[in-house]
Structure formats: C-alpha cells, structure tokens
Design a protein that fits this description.
206 residues, 10 helices, single chain, 0% strand, mainly alpha
Length: 206
C-alpha cells in the first residue's frame, strides 16, 4: 500500500508543480481576485477528473494485460516528455510565465475551473497513459491499493494547488523565481518517475 501511496504522492507533486494552462489560470485568478475568491477553484480536479477516470477505467478493464504494460511504457515516455517541458520552462521561466499571467476579467467559480479542466486534453492523456494503468493495477490487487494511490495523488495535487493560490494571492504579483524553482524540482521528479515507469513497463513486456 505504501508503494502505491508514494507513487500517488510523486505524480501529484509533479502535476501540481508542472506549469500548464490550469496552473496559469489559477495564478491569474489569485493575482486578480485574491486567494480567498480563488481557493475553491483549486478543488476543480476533484470534479473534472471523476468522469475522466471512470471513462478511462471502463475502457482499460476490457484490454489485455500486455496492452496495459504497453501503456506503462507510453506513460513513461510521456512523463519523460513532460520532464523535458518542465526543464525548458525552468530555463525560460521568466519570459514564459510573464506571458501566461495576463489577468482575466470577472470572478470564476470552481465549476468554471472544472469545465476548463474537462476541456484540457492533459487529464485524458495522463489518466489514459499513466494514472489509469497504475490505478487499475492496484485496484485489481486490492481496492485499498487503488484507493491509496488516489489519496496520495489528490492529497499532494490539491494541497499544491491551494499553496499556489495562497502564495500568489498574498504576493499580489507574479513571482518568476517561485515558478522557476517549481519547474526545476518538477523536472527532476518527472525524470526519475518517467524512467522508473518506462523500465517497469518494458520488464512487464519481456
């Protein structure tokens, strides 16, 4: 159970620390509206990911075991790709973050944030290639293992998003240094986990 929980923690940290459209959205809203009005939006993945996970698992449960191992290989490659993107953001954080932080007018609710996440292809790719196979593998062994993975993942993901909202809301202005540090740490975590997932998937296929 600890192994699945740790995998969830690692992936949750990477998801919460990797720059992307949803992170830029939360930063923009917290800078524009303050952290109190934006805090609920950090919980949007709990709403948007539920139908995504259900759809992905419904498809994965009808696939042979070798296909799931292949998905783990694909997931490892995808995470390594994200690691490269995080490293690129680390190298060019100042200019890219400044361009992403144009404030949006109006007050956005958690439902608007969830809808934005539903329209974002990244959650579908993640749960289809990385999170889904791990969750299904643990669930087949014991439902508690799958639950441990989900708890670890959302504990760090939501916690990281809340921290992001509060920090930028209190600062009241963009902080490229924070984004740069998070991008660097995220790149290292993604690199390590992507290599592990790729190796385990290849071993399962052999």
């Amino acid at each position: 159970m600890i192994g699945y929980f740790v995998q969830g923690l690692a992936l949750g940290f990477s998801a919460s620390a990797t720059p992307g459209p949803f992170m830029a959205y939360l930063i923009s809203q917290s800078l524009h509206n303050g952290w109190r009005r934006t805090l609920l939006a950090a919980f949007a993945p709990l709403l948007s990911d539920s139908p995504i996970i259900a759809l992905v698992l419904l498809i994965l449960t009808h696939l042979p075991g070798w296909f799931l191992a292949g998905l783990k290989v694909a997931g490892g490659l995808f995470i390594l790709y994200l690691a490269w993107g995080a490293y690129a953001s680390f190298r060019q954080a100042d200019d890219e973050l400044a361009a992403a932080l144009e404030p949006e007018a109006g007050r956005q609710s958690v439902l608007h944030a969830a809808l934005m996440n539903l329209l974002n292809p990244n959650p579908y790719i993640f749960w289809g290639t990385v999170g889904g196979p791990i969750l299904l593998e643990g669930w087949r062994l014991a439902p508690a293992l799958g639950g441990a993975f989900l708890i670890g993942f959302y504990l760090v993901l939501i916690g990281g998003l809340i921290l992001l909202v509060v920090v930028f809301g209190m600062l009241g202005q963009a902080s490229p240094r924070i984004s740069r540090v998070l991008s660097g740490v995220s790149a290292l975590v993604l690199l390590a986990f992507g290599g592990y997932l790729l190796a385990s998937g290849v071993a399962a296929l052999l």
